[in-house]
Amino acid sequence: MQQVMGSEGSSVVVPRNFRLLEELERGEKGIGDGTVSYGMDDADDVYMQSWTGTIIGPPNTVHEGRIYQLKLFCGKDYPEKAPGVRFQTRINMSCVDRETGLVEPSLFPMLADWQREYTMEDLLTQLKKEMMSPQNRKLAQPPEGNEGGRVNQKGLMLKCCIL
Amino acid sequence: MGAEGESIVSGGSIGGVEEVTVNIRCSNGSKFSVRTILSSMVGAFKALLAQNCDVPAEQQRLIYKGRILKDDQTLDSYGLQANHTIHMVRGSAPAGSSPAAATTNTGNPTITPSVALGGGSNEGGGFGGNGLGASLYPGLGFGALGGTGASGLLGAGLPEFEQVQQQLTQNPNMMREIMNMPAIQNLMNNPDLMRSMMMNNPQMREIIDRNPELAHILNDPGILRQTLEAARNPELMREMMRNTDRAMSNIESSPEGFNMLRRMYENVQEPFLNATTMGGGIGNDVGSNPFAALLGNHVGGAQTTDGSNSPSTTGSETTTAATAPNANPLPNPWSGTGGGSQANTTTRSNPTGDAGAPGIGGLAGLALPELGNTFGMLDPSVMSQILQNPAISQMMQSLFSNPQYMNQILGSNPQLRSMLDLNPQLREMMQNPEILRQLTSPETMQQMMALQQPLAQLNRQQSTGEPAQTGGTTGTQNNMGLELLMNMFGGLGAGGLTVPNTPDVPPEELYATQLSQLQEMGFFDTQENIRALRATSGNVHAAVERLLGNPNQ
User: Fold this and answer.
1) Containing domain of residue B541, as a range?
2) At CA A59, angle to CA A56 and CA A65, rounded to 5?
3) Which CATH number is A155's domain given?
4) pLDDT exceeds 60 at position A149
5) Could you say which of B83, B183, B200 has the minimum Cβ distance to residue A153?
6) Nearest by CB to B123, which of A34, A35, A149?
């Protein structure tokens, strides 16, 4: 009986929405190692595509005490395919495009070899580990104090409209 | 069990606002819980947390769902619910030592030029500088520095000044953010966006409601695009302006034509101005004389001495101060082809004081308020002579390229200074020679002139049409309004300059998203799609209409 259950469990594929709801709950409840945080941008988005993540700079690196904000985009084929990850806070890091903040999948193995078991939390944690790596922990960083330095166009438009 | 839990919760409720438990997770791994109401402000919540941990409220940085909580928001605005977890990080002490921290500090306006320069070139790069330049231009000549600055940034200069001013003075970060955005370029390039911006201004909407013809103009992406295109291209601009001039003189020569022009001025221009200046936050500054006097003294005053001796001192300063050499030789921006052709057109329409018009147009680019003073007082021929003098243009240039001198001017006016103190960013802008250099480039000048000259003409016609004909009183009043409009257009002109590269973008790239949308709708002919998108400046709906063979819609 148990064996049957086990084999069934491994063959059952968790649908996208359940998976994302699970991740949403973990993010809200703060389950995990507590150094990354993430949540959905718009609670009304039925497709649960746009997410915001935060990485707290790991200690004993140049990133210590900094808070890095990221945008994660889960396409319709998540978790089969990796989400798009983009740093909103400016960061100097080997796998991150300096201008756009995009995490280059080719330079970040976790994105390149994405497995459906990986979660956004894993992704953020891995990025945090990457910050602690020898090539990144001492890289000079742009001055702090420009969270949201990269504002997407929609935000800009809104802002201008408000003005 | 369940009932018990419920009773606890309801026991904690006060007047329908329930207290909930929120978990706090510190970056060092420790955890604790607090009870709070979700409608409380983040700032108050931090104070509550400070009682429960050793991190003072001002050092707390709270993160929930990947977002950093801001003090002036409520907890439930972030969607916080019972038993959710907020992460807390101990931030650095408020008195940061980094240059970025120094520049963000509003309370401390003593920013050395070097810091300002570093901050300016750090993020926005060349583009940021350009954007600033656009805003500085009208701002410099005019009282409402913050407001007009922003309008320059926004290109058309149509948002409400009051709000802009308030936002910017209260929140220098916002200004900085706007400047740092490379996306501003896209904004300038997207007539659709511009239109939505205009439509979002309630006063603008009112004007449009009252004047359907105007609505047509603003709703026509083609015209908007043309305007932007023109702002970008000085040649085109001159061409357009000449056409307008000609049309104007034609109208004028027909019976009742002049009155029509005047009515147009009253019906359209004035509400326009009202929309842009309505209840300006620093109301007294609108067209106030201190500024006119300021620049009139420094610029105009020096000019009336014919600029023979005074430029020599400033000129020598330039050689040391102009670290970024002007790529374009700038002997005399006002005697260029633009000025010449304009002088011709004005002669036709109004023989009196024609020499003054281009001169005023050109000067207005540099010191708009002076217009108000000089218009009635200064002899036009003297004016044009002054402006034809290369020494003057040199002096102007040196004035703008020398940060110290600029500072001196800015510092000598108390009102201006207080404004700068409120806006450290503005000060940075003023102190950046790169920006100033861009401002004084001949292209910018000519654009400004081309834009302002017909306006000056219109205004002159208006003032001569007044029955009193005193020119001194009515004229200056009109000039007040004219200055505003000129600022607006000045912003447009300079704003257009900030996107010099974009016309080179291939349409496939420019309209990539729209193209894919059209593809999805089943329009597979890419070339046809591009043509339609071009004609509608990227408006997908209009493009579809067009593709369906209904080009008028």
Assistant:
1) 505-547
2) 50
3) 3.10.110.10
4) no
5) B183
6) A149
